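Q: What would this complex look like in 3D?
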Amino acid sequence: MQKYDDLTEFVLRMGDSALIQAQRLCEWTGKAPALEEELALMNVGLDLVGQARNWLDYAAELIGDGTDADALAYRRDERNYRNVLMVEQPNGDFAVTMLKQFLYDVWQFHMLSKLRESKDDRVAAIATKSLKEVTYHLRRSSDWIKRLGDGTEESHQRMVKAIDDVWRFTYDFLQLTEQENALIDSQVIGDVRDVAAQWQTKVNAVFVASTLTVPKPAEPFYLNSREGVHSECLGALLAEMQYLQRAHPNASW
Amino acid sequence: MSQWTLFEVFIRSKHGLNHKHVGSVHAADAEMAIENARELYTRRNEGVSIWVTPSAQITATASDEKEALFDPSEDKVYRHASFYELPEEVGHM
Amino acid sequence: MYAQLVETGTKKLKTLDEMGPEERAFQERIDAEIKIEAKNWMPDSYRKTLIRQISQHAHSEIVGMLPEGNWVTRAPTLKRKLQLMAKIQDEAGHGLYLYSAMETLGADRDEEIDKLHTGRAKYSSIFNYPTLNWADMGAVGWLVDGAAIVNQVPLQRTSYGPYARAMIRVCKEESFHQRQGYEILLHMMRHGTEAQQEMVQDAINRLWWPALMMFGPSDEHSPNSAQSMAWKIKRHTNDELRQRFIDQTIPQLEVLGCTVPDPDLKWNEETGHYDFGEIQWDEFNRVIQGHGPCNTERLNARRNAHENGAWVRAAAVAHAEKKQKAVA
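A: Here is my prediction, written as structure tokens for the whole assembly.
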């Protein structure tokens, strides 16, 4: 497994998470529950690929060995991917997809809000630009959680099941590492230490409004995205996403 | 019958301009209609403000009322500035 | 052309003298290039034909997302991924603009979509062909969107106001689709490996004839054309549009350095147009009748999306009703 310096690792984590979340959204093409929703899901996906590209461009510059965003996206194995575990999980039904989107949006929203205050100009700039998009993503996904949680008996049951399936991965983005704490102490990145608490408050509020029960905080167990120990499904996702670049290593697209 | 309600969409494309009818969307409620209208009609920066209203709430003139409603204004030329002739030395008014 | 073989329900054109006063006023209005609007009187057959034509056009946009969806998870670079996502999203949008125009005629979107799902409504034959390599994303943009644009540009002047306005919006947004497709191919031809260049030629070989079929049957086999032209919901014949497409596409093909699989294709100095070979109409008819390579997959995909989404749509309605009650 490749390890980079603390800032690069952090930037990769933000970029990889956006990219993998977008890749899962792409899988919804032609399958959305309403035509209006096809547009909406793709819009969020477009924003996230754009964000991923900004983060990965920066990561490539930090690495500085001539790599670029495409090489990082399309030539790294799953052990070198740094995305949070939740976004790689399969889409499941629309309840699972929207729940993942919502939990990710809340995290992104609070992370990016703080990252705007980073001393590192690039991190601050990417965060400022991304936050506008994420503010809208969060509004939409919160609305859907309420519609599904407090909709029909069936939709409520599906949300309950979705929470059962997905909640266990949330520890992975709520806890900070020693290296991330060091970046905060040196003010390279904004102080994201409160994000876990802010995330919990927002999730609680939306769940309550959606007649959903908030589970106990998830406990870390074995899987660790920062060490590249992902769920099995990430390998298959990357095999699909990276197929052309892997099959034609000398090609230009 | 459609499961979601049909809403008419009006967009203000720039500050200072009127909202203009652009089309319709389907949505379960007005909030969703606004979101769907934003996704559909402002993908290329076309709007600064959106109105939606259920299509069923629109009352329109019938086509056979055109003469009664609009023709009478045709001969009221005195409502237009160009009707009034002023000597050139008055300049622009 | 996204609307092929649209039934008008009339086999013989009426002269103005044979029309009643309302229909005569309607036809004179069309002849004078004055738009027909939703609340205006119109013959029932005009209304029904338009609903068929616009819904067929809209269904084509929506089904047309599927062959591209086949590659969106495998786009080779972040830039190509963004472009393809934006294009697919536009297609959903164009489908919605068109359904919206159709609903002004009193048609119900869910009912028309149900006709698609139950095989009672058509969509363009082209989307029943598979997309088998990445160059297909280029060839679809260049040839399929290119053919669609040739058809849609004149429809901006179609007689029905809401349809014409939807087409103006569609044409404006679609201008990037064709260029995007062509650029994918040109880049692979100029900067790609041999394997990539083979992909490009392979994609053109497979999609060339189906793209020409998009314009529908030849004029002598288009019994509905005369009425549609009189109503100005069709502004040029199938053969005129097909010829226009070929004439503008072959020079672009030459820039690519590729060929089309038609030994009879050659420039005709006398007519000022390209001559081309015979289209396999039996293949076209098979695809239109539901027996193309992907008809089953495309329809199943649309049906599944609709059925799997039923509980989501119902939940949204139930929630809206609860909110409404809480306010009341």
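A: To summarize the key features: Chain A touches chain B at residues 34-36, 39-40, 43, 139-140, 143, 147 (CB under 8 Å). The first helix of chain A runs from residue 6 to 26.
Q: Very helpful, thank you.
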